[in-house]
Design goal:
Radius of gyration: 15 Å
Strand content: 35-45%
Number of helices: 6
CATH topology: Aminopeptidase
CATH superfamily: Gcn5-related N-acetyltransferase (GNAT)
Number of domains: 1
Strand order of the largest sheet: 6-7-5-4-3-2-1-8
Structural class: alpha+beta
Distance between the termini: 22 Å
Order of helices and strands: EHHEEEHEHEEHEH
Shape: globular
Helix content: 25-40%
Length: 171
């Protein structure tokens, strides 16, 4: 069984391990801990049979949600969990008032770009030499109607449980 829920302090070690496995320049453990105190930050962990296999962090400001980071541990990539996690993030963003969502993705990350395309993200810009480790550009993607995407992909709701109450109560 899979489940999405709010990240807790005890989860940060697992989230950091996934971060290190997933990115050339990972966020530090301390930065991830700091996000727990950030009033606009909302972090989701994604579990399979009680093991954290992914996470997504976003900042919600007014009607916009910005994905700061999203990753699935390598052993579970390609199984649809990233799409479920993104869907959960959209639901959480909408619960906090976001109507649209944005993110940056490496121009060479075709796998992620396909997933974002399936979830109605469109390229709306480019950040030149955004990634300091390679000098690679970032594509700026936007989904301008996350509620529509959530409804369109409602069948994903059957495959995981998202406890929005824990986010709304600040737990």
């Amino acid at each position: 069984m899979t489940a999405a829920r709010a990240m807790r302090k005890a989860d940060v070690k697992s989230v950091y391990e996934i971060e290190v496995l997933s990115f050339r320049t990972p966020w530090s453990y301390r930065s991830l801990m700091g996000e727990l105190k950030n009033d606009v930050a909302h972090y989701i962990v994604f579990e399979k049979d009680g093991e954290i296999i992914g996470y997504c962090g976003m900042w919600v400001l007014f009607e916009e949600a910005h994905i700061a980071n999203i990753a699935i541990t390598p052993a579970y990539r390609g199984s649809g969990y990233g799409k479920q996690l993104l869907h959960a993030a959209m639901r959480v963003g909408a619960a906090f008032g976001a109507e649209m969502m944005t993110l940056e993705v490496r121009e060479t990350n075709a796998v992620a770009q396909r997933m974002y395309d399936e979830m109605d993200f469109l390229q709306q810009g480019r950040r030149k030499r955004y990634y300091s480790d390679t000098g690679e550009d970032a594509l700026i993607l936007w989904n301008r109607n996350i509620l529509e995407t959530v409804e369109k992909n409602a069948c994903l709701n059957d495959t995981y449980l998202l406890q929005l109450d824990s986010f709304l109560k600040g737990e």
